[in-house]
Design a protein that fits this description.
By secondary structure, the protein is mainly beta. The chain contains six helices and 49 strands.
Length: 834
């Protein structure tokens, strides 16, 4: 079967390339030379009859998208506006083999991110993302806060496949790059206001102005607010006589609306160009995102055999707390009590331990800012030097009711802060018409502190009320080189290498709420103090072995370091002026570390980097006088030492990560843009992903082969096997009255696995169901094209679907919950350009 799929994909690509090579010259005879990017964009805007060139910088220099031997989705500012795409997740929805989804409330304002089945869905700062995200070529190191608003961008580039040499560490699956619109000093800009359902109010604006003949600036901002769409309901109010007390006035049982929007951001850019050989760009930005937490719904429960979880006497945790669509019964804390052992044996003597009350809110706050500077200096006609310096910082706080009910199963208060600094230097060389290259160096440093207050009451062995203010420090250094050589007019061979050295220190603390060491999670630390490692002179284990070496968990630092070579080799050949075929072999990796969630010292388990080598073939084509663009690629990824979360490790409870298996990932993606007649624009994409763990490679801790449900272990987390998108718009010319442009978009995502092997017998329920969404937009523009009014409807057919599903029943929490996507929404916007 593997041979058949591989052969079929190869033959399909070769056949398509052959057809393109035959059909293109006929249209090329009357085709003008490709215009520059600005000229192409202007022609596209005026005529809507030619596919515009987009210039990308994936290989350290400006190249046309069609000349770059990498599978790339590049989206211009005009396309973002036409498709009503306002954040990064919406761009990914229409991009083949890309998945970026907002997480549930337990993971705060973070995303799950994957490209071609490789990525990360855990926001903990001790884990590395498998998809590199860059803002103006500055690396953004965390999943938290990564659902970026697309504010005044020039373009978005999504690079599929490992970018180990071109982008560096943690771009194992690919890279996503956002580029701000640069100042031109032309005095232009725009103001856009919109209003929509659930009191949606928004404003976006940008202004470009010249300060001197060599200095210009651009400032842009956005503010959006909207009520949420998931009702948080007081259970006692909605169910009088249930035995659960109400906190709301009679007849008004809705406490708040979850899943709201409260986003503000501003960016300023200075561009100084004193000569044609030297320029400096300085960018600063600030974001504040405060809103009600993500709206989740309870989907299913299982029995939790712990009296400490019952919301009231005699009321168990069961399906009575399933509210239905777009509603839940969450609490924002848990009451005080006394811990009762749910099992006859009480090995830790925990019976009668007081349980403190915990209290939070249903709001989430993220604040982030960054500053970067880019210096370009042309040393000569052949050599140019580029320096990119960046500093970013954020802090966020959010609370989560793990059980989505009044039950006392789990509650968390979370504080996360991070800062990062990066410095990159590149030397570009243009050595004649046939040879160019880049050499450079990179340095990165970051520190995170994840302070989580946990109140977990379903665990049967002892109470888990603790804080874990754990700092994580990491740094990385790299040197790299990339070379492109044209041995003949139509062929280019390119290659690169990167050497990376990285390290990470994770320090653990397991404390009571008052700051003392928690005796259940860290008995050694409670007896001997922080950071103790030595003889058990007090015989705290009561085994008579006073010479036993014991180690405190609190104050313990786990160190990780690794060194890695990555490489890329590619060749492309032009079958004609408008058709290119290419092939490449490239590598990438995702950094390792140590388990950030140990419940005892035995669970301080190291995991190593996961690695990937990718084999890719593809083609890029413009046909019929550039009225049709069709790009496609097929790939095979050999994926080794995959980092898999598990619930099976020394002691209980457990939440760890192991290098638990190898896999082969095969697939393809294709994108099409067409202007069949003047005024009509069509875009489409399709992708397929076949993920298979290699036989015998899985660790027994992953528990896949013995899954009682009989579900095969062939599902990449958060990556749908099939995905497609289709969009069309038609510009109707109204002469002096302007123009009217209706647009329709539809996207489909296949069923995808939402978790890992840890779910056990419930694994077959831990999927996000397949869904199809449709959006529509109608835009009127005046004859001068400087004023437009738009009406848009998203989720046109009001599909009830899920962005994520989280199943904790395998951990004993009895919870399966999901985050539904937004229901049908409408908005009207007015935009004025100047």
């Amino acid at each position: 079967m593997q041979y058949v799929l591989r052969t079929t994909m190869t033959h399909a690509l070769l056949a398509s390339a052959s057809i393109l090579a035959i059909t293109t010259p006929a249209s090329a005879q009357s085709s003008a030379p490709p215009p520059s990017a600005p000229q192409a964009a202007e022609q596209d805007a005026l005529s809507s009859a030619m596919v515009a060139d987009i210039v990308v910088t994936a290989q350290f220099r400006e190249q046309r998208l069609q000349d770059t031997p990498i599978s790339i989705t590049a989206v211009s500012a005009a396309e973002l506006e036409a498709k009503s795409q306002v954040n990064l997740a919406q761009v990914a929805d229409a991009s083949p083999n890309v998945s970026l989804k907002p997480q549930g409330a337990s993971f705060g304002p973070s995303i799950s991110a994957s490209i071609r089945g490789v990525g990360q869905n855990d926001f903990n700062p001790a884990y590395e993302p498998g998809v590199g995200i860059y803002i103006d070529d500055v690396y953004y190191p965390q999943l938290t806060g990564a659902v970026f608003e697309l504010l005044d961008l020039d373009r978005v580039e999504i690079l599929r496949g490992p970018q180990g040499t071109l982008a560096g560490r943690n771009a194992e699956g690919g890279a996503i790059k956002l580029y701000s619109k640069r100042p031109s000093g032309d005095g232009g800009g725009f103001v856009e206001v919109n209003y929509g359902i659930r009191n949606r109010i928004g404003i976006r604006a940008a202004a470009d102005f010249g300060i001197t003949s060599t200095l210009s600036a651009r400032i842009s901002g956005v503010a959006r607010q909207q009520e949420g769409f998931v009702d948080r309901i007081d259970y006692g109010c909605a169910n009088p006589g249930s035995g659960i007390a109400s906190t709301q006035p009679a007849g008004d049982c809705v406490i708040s609306k979850l899943g709201g929007v409260g986003y503000q951001a501003i960016r300023g850019i200075l561009f100084w160009e004193p000569s044609d050989r030297f320029d400096v760009t300085i960018i600063g930005d600030y974001t504040r995102d405060e809103h009600t937490i993500a709206g989740e719904v309870l989907l299913e429960t299982s029995t939790v055999n712990s009296p400490n979880t019952n919301p009231a006497s005699g009321i168990p945790y069961d399906n009575r707390f399933i509210c239905g669509r777009y509603c839940n019964y969450i609490g924002t804390g848990q009451p005080a009590g006394v811990w009762t052992p749910p099992i006859p044996v009480d090995p830790f003597g925990a019976a009668g331990t007081p349980l403190a009350a915990t209290q939070g809110t249903d709001r989430s706050l993220y604040q982030g800012w960054g500053v970067s500077g880019q210096i370009n200096y042309k040393l000569s006609d052949a050599f140019a030097l580029t320096s990119i310096t960046g500093y970013r910082a954020f802090d966020t706080q959010f609370d989560s009711d793990d059980d989505i009910s009044p039950a006392n199963i789990g509650f968390g208060r979370n504080y996360l802060e991070n800062w990062s600094f990066s410095q990159e230097v590149r030397l570009n060389a243009e050595l004649g018409d046939t040879l160019n290259g880049t050499v450079g160096g990179y340095y990165f440093k970051q520190k995170s502190t994840y302070d989580s207050l946990q109140d977990i009451r379903y665990v049967p062995v002892y109470p888990l009320q603790f804080r874990q203010p754990d700092p994580t420090k990491a740094d990385a250094k790299a040197v790299f080189a990339h070379l492109s050589w044209k041995p003949m007019e139509r062929m280019t061979i390119s290659g690169g290498v990167r050497y990376t050295s990285e390290s990470k220190d994770q320090t653990y603390f397991r404390l009571n709420y008052d700051g003392t060491v928690n005796a259940f999670l860290d008995p050694v630390g409670a007896v001997y103090g922080l950071s103790y490692s030595g003889a058990d002179t007090l015989d705290y284990n009561r085994n008579g072995n006073v010479t036993e070496i014991v180690t405190a968990l609190s104050g313990l630092t786990a160190h990780y370091s690794a060194k890695r070579w990555d490489y890329r080799i590619a060749a492309d050949y032009r079958l004609s002026d408008h058709v290119m075929v290419y092939g490449s072999v490239s590598t990438g990796f995702k950094g390792g570390g140590s388990n950030p969630r140990p419940f005892n010292t035995d669970q301080v388990i190291a995991f190593q980097p996961e690695k990937l080598i990718a084999y890719e073939i593809g083609f890029k084509s413009d046909m019929f006088n550039r009225r049709l663009r069709f790009n496609a690629a097929a790939f095979i990824n050999d994926y080794t030492d995959i980092q898999i979360p598990v619930l099976t490790c020394p002691g209980a409870p457990c939440a760890a990560r192991l290098n638990a298996g190898d896999a082969q990932v095969k697939g393809f993606e294709a994108e099409l843009t067409a202007y069949p007649v003047d005024g009509l624009a069509i875009d489409a994409s399709i992708s397929y992903l076949d993920f298979k763990y290699k036989a015998g490679s899985l660790s027994p801790a992953a528990a896949y082969p013995t899954n009682p449900g009989g579900v095969s272990a062939d599902d990449p987390p958060v990556s749908p096997p099939w995905k497609f998108s289709l969009g069309a718009q038609y510009k109707i010319d109204l002469d002096s009255a302007g123009s009217l442009t209706p647009r329709f978009d539809v996207t489909y995502e296949d069923k995808k696995y939402a978790g890992s092997s840890v779910i056990g017998t419930t694994r077959n329920l831990n999927f996000v169901p397949a869904y199809t969404l449709a959006n529509a937009r109608l835009t009127w523009a005046n004859a001068d094209n400087d004023l437009d009014i738009s009406l848009e409807v998203t989720n046109l057919f009001d599909k009830y679907y899920f962005l994520s599903v989280f199943d904790l029943r395998g951990a004993g929490a009895g919870v399966r919950k999901g985050r539904p996507g937004n229901p049908r929404e409408w908005a009207i916007s007015v935009k004025k350009k100047f």
